[in-house]
From TrEMBL, chain A:
This is SWIM zinc finger protein. Residues 55-91 form the SWIM-type domain. Residues 107-133 are annotated as: Disordered. GO terms for molecular function: zinc ion binding. Keywords: Metal-binding, Zinc, Zinc-finger. Residues 107-128 have a biased composition (Basic and acidic residues). It holds the Pfam family SWIM. The lineage of its organism: Bacteria, Bacillati, Bacillota, Bacilli, Bacillales. It comes from Paenibacillus cellulosilyticus.
From TrEMBL, chain B:
It comes from Paenibacillus cellulosilyticus. This is HEAT repeat protein. InterPro entries: ARM-like, ARM-type_fold. Pfam families: HEAT_2.
Length: 480, 609
């Protein structure tokens, strides 16, 4: 039993091009052979390709939520357009699928996979519990020493910059920073390196020097805080390599550590049986790190926590990696991995199932929203005052109305407390405020909004940008 | 206020960051804030810490200054981050909401490319845009304002596609956004917006259309005026606009006045015809197609002619121009197929203007063309205009009158006479009547006749399929014409008129196949094709001489056809050529093989070997 929808097939595709190509194949009727097994767990067929022989492709749904794609084409994209096309053909009403027996080669592969699973399960049973991962202490100490060295270089550079003043930054200084940033690549602190590159990007902007000073100063403060905090932490760990990794803050990740799921599991940073609903999505280019970041903001339907998924696609490998997308169904996962973080901790999951969104879910989201702005604001301020914290925390808030005071749009809660709205924090597909005027009148009254906060230093305001509005019937996505 | 003090401090800190902390020691402006900070510190400990940090900056050595400044700013920034205001002063107002029923469910990977195509420039967007429209990615609330903005696109195919998509895909939903975006002083994009609004809401857009017609930029004015067609209630406005400063606006207003056809509108058209807008008025008058108006124009032309006949010098040429315009208005009026005979090949659309208009026009032209002294070089334009008008009337009377103008047979009028003759006379009569004029091929008259013949044959041959022979129908023309064309050295007509083999013709044609003739020259090819068509014995020989004389680099369809129609005996020569022409060796050999393989009788039939 497969219940495929077009949107679901879209979500399986690695990128927009694959969607287009797959749909084109289905539309042009490029599948002379289209079959489905009696239990409807396997689609298979043949697709005309450029070669002499047609490509034989199949999609195996024997493991729910984890389809297995097979195709004889040489494409490196996965799933390839042929398997996607076959699914689109299955979804569309215009093409019919013959019921047929499972082909022997697929049956063989299924058997092998099953055996592999059994073996794995057996091994787990025997060897359980899994041995904790061993840490090579001398290597760790060596690494930490190197990291500390790198941080010293960074600190020296920061102090030098402050000493001479931002006004004196010229091409030569920028070149120097550039060289230093490159050099930092040898010290296992890619996060700090990227933060320096961010400063570099700011300083390179020649046209609006005056405007970027405020951000540049903030970045210098951030760098100095990062150096100080991580030095203390790393020195402690160098002395006692057995001490645990920092998980109360995102410090490790800020330094550039890429958390592995196994590590998170060991540290007990998992939640079981979680249902997540995506409230907003955005993909942007992080030039300092040289990668695209596909970001999803999700609500945990059990307690209303706002979680973040981040998929990084380095510019160089962007084409080969799956481009994430807006997601419209509820994700159910047995095991959710939670990264160290603050209000919006990053999460990941390996296995998941989907269920369609119901009206009850909208109601749930609305119930989980924070009703009182002073409470939310307090939490937000508490986070952003820390120089190393995420300066753009995201929160789900209820609103009485979205209104206007002069040119400023505001959110208002039941106690008439306000949050001013701006549009320049996240890159929206349009002027978000223009979209507000297109909504139904009742959608601007007594609903729930997902907003990203930011402190505006120059005007001394705490402002927010609307990301989505949840009503009783739908989610209005103001980003993607 | 303490926050203000913190901001002042922040300002000084920012200044020191820019100037360099090396200059911070004992900074006067920073020091000035110290007492206030300390005072506040008595109440709130955080100010004490700030005051201490600030003190540290003031007293730091040059080496330490950077660290101290960073510490102060870090502390300050942390405090300021807790002080952000969220209240905005002023009266709250509700946001107007238009309640457009569109979802926001198009996922990022489909919406983003669409928005990118709509907001960027570059190649290949049209194709991608078509794709996005095909899979309905534009049916999203977030895409609609962007789609409507993209009407300003400079690439017209994209803009038209978007306009059509807005009209059919969004329909009424787009109205409010278009209304909001439209700028009557704008450019082509706003013309599209106006047209869309007019299309989507019809009469409800009238106010906007009127506003645009009066106050819009030129392009928008023109578009708005066009929308007022067939709306007599806006006659006054249109009359006013027909006197606008801009020519484009006047033109549009006159066009639209023609469509409403009220008395005032027609009067205005006639008035315009006598003004500097003469040229602009002609087309609207023709389109207005009003018998009454045309009657008045005929009368006006009569008067113009009288004045013209009496005038002299500059005045005379001015009146000639006026008369010319008036006659142009009459073209196509009153055309009716009266007593159409079998030789009248011209197809005429029947206009509702009546026969007597045609009679009046003929009477006017008869008077003009029979006035002594009218035929002079200065009136050539008028003469031709009158003759063309007579031909366009296409009544028997008009044609007969034109043909009767024998006196001007040897002038530029000859071609018109010939065309009238072609309609009235049998092929033999036509030849007898006109061939004499062609005795002197370099005269104006013979050139005009040759032009007229080309015109007639073009019409005759317009229906001929590509692979048929280009040759005039034998029963429409006297067979003697071909010799006339030989004498006139009009190769084109000789080719069209050659029906059978004829020594004079073949001599003429072969003389054109000199050594310099190029095989890919289309007239050379056509000569060869004609020679083959009339089964001239030496045709294959001539073809091969040309092929052997010069190398050629590619084969085209006519050449292939020619080669394929030579007799078998030429196959060895063909193979010899193939060896010498590496570019075409394969194809020539293939042709030779095919000819060898073909049944003998087919070859025999096409050749004379």
């Amino acid at each position: 039993m497969i219940s495929l929808t077009e949107a679901y097939v879209d979500s399986l595709a690695p990128n927009a091009g694959a969607i287009k190509n797959g749909r084109d194949l289905a539309r042009k009727g490029s599948f002379p052979l289209r079959c489905v097994t009696e239990d409807q767990k396997l689609l298979f067929g043949e697709c005309k390709g450029s070669g002499k022989e047609p490509y034989r492709c199949s999609i195996d749904f024997v493991q729910e939520g984890n389809p297995v794609y097979r195709c004889t084409c040489p494409s490196r994209q996965f799933p390839c357009k042929h398997t996607l096309g076959l699914m689109y053909a299955y979804v569309s009403s215009s093409s019919t699928f013959e019921t047929a027996d499972i082909p022997s080669d697929v049956a063989d592969k299924r058997d092998k996979a099953e055996k592999r699973e059994e073996k794995k399960a057996a091994a787990e049973k025997e060897g359980a519990p899994k041995a904790p991962r061993k840490v090579n202490k001398s290597a760790l100490v060596k690494k930490i020493t190197s990291q500390l060295e790198g941080l010293s270089i960074l600190e020296k550079l920061v102090l030098q910059l402050v000493h001479h003043g931002l006004g004196s930054v010229d091409k030569k200084t920028i070149q120097l920073i550039e060289e230093q940033a490159k050099q930092l690549g040898n010290y296992y602190i890619p996060g700090a390196q990227a933060a320096l590159r961010e400063l570099l990007l700011l300083l390179r902007n020649d046209d609006e020097r005056e405007a970027i000073y405020t951000s540049a100063i903030e970045q210098l403060i951030y760098l100095q805080a990062l150096v100080k905090k991580s030095k203390a932490y790393l020195e402690k760990r160098a002395e006692d390599p057995d001490s645990p990794m920092e998980t109360d803050s995102a410090l490790e990740e800020l330094l550039g550590h890429a958390w592995q799921l196994a590590e998170l599991q060991e540290l007990g940073r998992t939640r079981s049986n979680v249902e997540l609903l995506q409230l907003s999505f955005l993909s942007y280019a992080d030039h300092a790190r040289g990668e695209f970041v596909d970001t999803g903001w999700w609500i945990d339907l059990a307690d209303g926590t706002i979680r973040v998924t981040r998929h990084m696609r380095p510019f160089r490998a962007a084409k080969q990696m799956k481009e994430e997308d807006s997601f419209f169904a509820v994700v159910q996962t047995d095991e959710l991995f939670v990264y160290p973080g603050e209000l919006n901790a990053r999460v990941r999951w390996e296995q998941s199932r989907f269920r369609e969104l119901e009206e009850a879910d909208y109601r749930k989201v609305k119930q989980l929203a924070a009703a009182s702005y002073p409470d939310v604001i307090k939490k937000v301020k508490n986070q952003i005052k820390n120089p190393l914290s995420d300066k753009m925390p995201v929160a789900l808030v209820a609103f009485q109305a979205i209104e206007r005071i002069g040119d400023t749009y505001i959110l208002r809660d039941a106690q008439n407390k306000q949050i001013p709205l701006v549009t320049n924090l996240l890159e929206a597909p349009h002027q978000p405020t223009a979209i507000l005027e297109l909504l139904q009148p009742e959608e601007l009254q007594e609903q729930t909004a997902l907003i990203a906060f930011r402190h505006e230093l120059d005007s001394n305001r705490l402002v927010a940008q609307l990301m989505s509005i949840t009503t009783d019937r739908r989610i209005v996505r103001l980003l993607y | 206020m303490s926050v203000e003090l913190l901001q002042d401090l922040q300002h000084e800190v920012r200044r020191l960051f820019i100037a360099g902390s090396a200059l911070a020691q004992g900074d006067v402006r920073l020091a000035k804030l110290q007492p206030q900070l300390k005072k506040l510190g008595e109440a709130a400990p955080v100010f004490n810490r700030i005051a201490e940090a600030s003190d540290a900056v003031l007293n730091a050595s040059r080496e330490d200054s950077a660290v101290k400044l960073l510490e102060l700013s870090k502390l300050l920034s942390a405090v300021l981050h807790t002080q952000g205001k969220t209240e905005t002063a002023g009266d709250r107002q509700p946001i107007p909401s238009l309640g457009i029923a569109l979802s926001t469910d198009v996922p990022y990977r489909r919406l983003k490319p669409l928005l990118e195509q709509l907001t960027t420039k570059g190649q290949g967007r049209l194709e991608q845009l078509r794709h996005s429209i095909l899979d309905n990615s534009y049916l999203d609330l977030r895409a609609m304002p962007v789609m409507c903005s993209a009407l300003d696109e400079t690439y017209p195919e994209i803009a038209d596609l978007i306009a059509e998509t807005i009209a059919t895909g969004y329909g009424q939903k787009a109205v409010s956004v278009l209304q909001e975006q439209i700028n009557l002083q704008g450019g082509k994009g706003d013309v599209r917006r106006l047209k869309l609004l007019h299309r989507l809401i019809g009469d409800s857009a009238e106010e906007l259309v009127l506003d645009a017609a009066v106050n819009g930029a030129v392009d928008i004015k023109v578009a708005a005026i066009e929308m007022l067609s067939k709306r007599p209630q806006h006659e006054m406005l249109l009359l006013e606009l027909s006197r606008d400063k801009r020519k484009e606006v006047r033109q549009a207003a006159l066009d639209t006045l023609a469509s409403i056809g009220t008395k005032e509108a027609l009067d205005r058209l006639q008035e315009a015809l006598s003004s500097k807008d003469r040229e602009l008025a002609i087309e609207p008058i023709r389109r207005a197609n009003s018998t009454a108006l045309l009657g008045r124009i005929i009368a006006q032309a009569e008067r113009s002619f009288d004045q013209f006949a009496a005038a002299e010098g500059k005045e005379r040429s001015k009146l000639a121009e006026q008369l010319h315009a008036e006659l142009l208005c009459l073209h196509g009026s009153g055309s009716e197929l009266i007593g159409a005979g079998p030789s009248w090949k011209r197809h005429v659309t029947v206009s509702p203007a009546s026969v007597h208009i045609a009679e009046d026009v003929i009477a006017l032209l008869r008077r003009m063309l029979t006035t002594p002294g009218f035929f002079a070089s200065e009136t050539e334009v008028l003469q031709e205009n009158a003759a063309e008008l007579l031909l366009s009337l296409n009544t028997e009377e008009a044609n007969r009158f034109l043909l009767s103008l024998d006196a001007v047979m040897n002038t530029c009028m000859a071609g018109y006479l010939f065309r009238a003759g072609y309609r009235l006379l049998t092929p033999t009569e036509l030849f007898d009547r006109f061939s004499g004029v062609l005795a002197n091929p370099s005269s104006i008259a013979s050139k005009e006749i040759i032009r007229a013949v080309s015109l007639i044959t073009q019409e005759q041959l317009s229906a001929v399929e590509e692979d048929e022979d280009l040759i005039v129908p034998a029963n429409s023309w006297d067979s003697r014409w071909v010799h006339t064309w030989v004498q006139a050295d009009s190769l084109e007509l000789v080719l069209l008129f050659t029906q059978t083999e004829d020594a004079q013709v073949t001599t003429y044609l072969t003389s054109k196949l000199t050594k310099n003739a190029r095989l890919h020259d289309s007239s050379i090819q056509r000569i060869l094709i004609t020679l083959f068509r009339i089964r001239y014995t030496d045709a294959p020989q001539l073809l091969f001489q040309l092929m052997e004389a010069r190398s050629f680099y590619y084969m085209d369809a006519p050449l292939r056809k020619l080669i394929a129609s030579v007799p078998r005996s030429y196959i060895p020569r063909l193979r010899a050529i193939a060896e010498k022409h590496p570019y075409n060796a394969n194809e020539l050999t293939a042709l030779a093989d095919a000819m060898e393989a073909a049944p003998a009788e087919i070859i025999e039939e096409s050749g004379t070997a």
